Amino acid sequence: MTESWAEKILKTLRKTFTLGKWITSNRNSFKTLIATIISQNTTDKNTTKAFKNISKQFRITPETLANAEKSKIEECLKVAGLYRRKAKTIKRVSKIIVEEFNGDLTRILSMSFEEARKTLLQLPGVGPKTADVVLLFCAEKPTIPIDTHVNRVSKRLDLAPKNGDYEAVRKSLQALYDPEDYLDIHVLLILLGRKYCKARNPLCKQCPVNMYCRLTTI
Ligand code: SF4
User: Fold this and answer.
1) pLDDT digits (tens, 9 = 90+) for 129-154
2) pTM for the structure as a whole
3) Ligand 1 neighbourhood includes 136 CB (under 6 angstroms)
4) CA of 10 to the centre of ligand 1 (A)
């Protein structure tokens, strides 16, 4: 069978990048949820710093964060921006998980994909990207989270419609790849976006998939 355009891109990216630390099994779903809430509207670097701060100050469990002083959480998150709102969200979501879900996300993650996604989306601070990150990385559910890199790069590579919204991009990518490749393509598009296909001034000359890209500036 001839390889599709999308498969060729995946194959080339697999040869270019190592997935390493991204592919760890048994990710803690609550920590992943908190890290993804912190990552909203900020850079990867600032997310890492803020997550380190909060991890030094508190045990990252729903019980601890539900009862933590809001001002102390805010202090940890200052570097990531929107810290007041994020601290409030983290306390609220922790409280709900304690009171309604027995203190962890296991019950939600053992539901069917559709049910689990719907339930996560009802939690404060959880939008489609956060829900999809938790579902993919912590429960191996068949979804592709669309962050800013995945959105930009997949559109430039014609893997998604140019004006597509979150769901259009997610569905387009999911239709092009096998569910077993969802995690890899999600991570590989992020790595491509960080290193070569930058928002401004993409490095098309050095880009490993420039032969598949109509936007190339070479
Ligand atoms: S060739 Fe340029 S625009 Fe196309 S994917 Fe590579 S870096 Fe992005």
Assistant:
1) 999 999 999 999 999 999 999 999 99
2) 0.91
3) no
4) 14
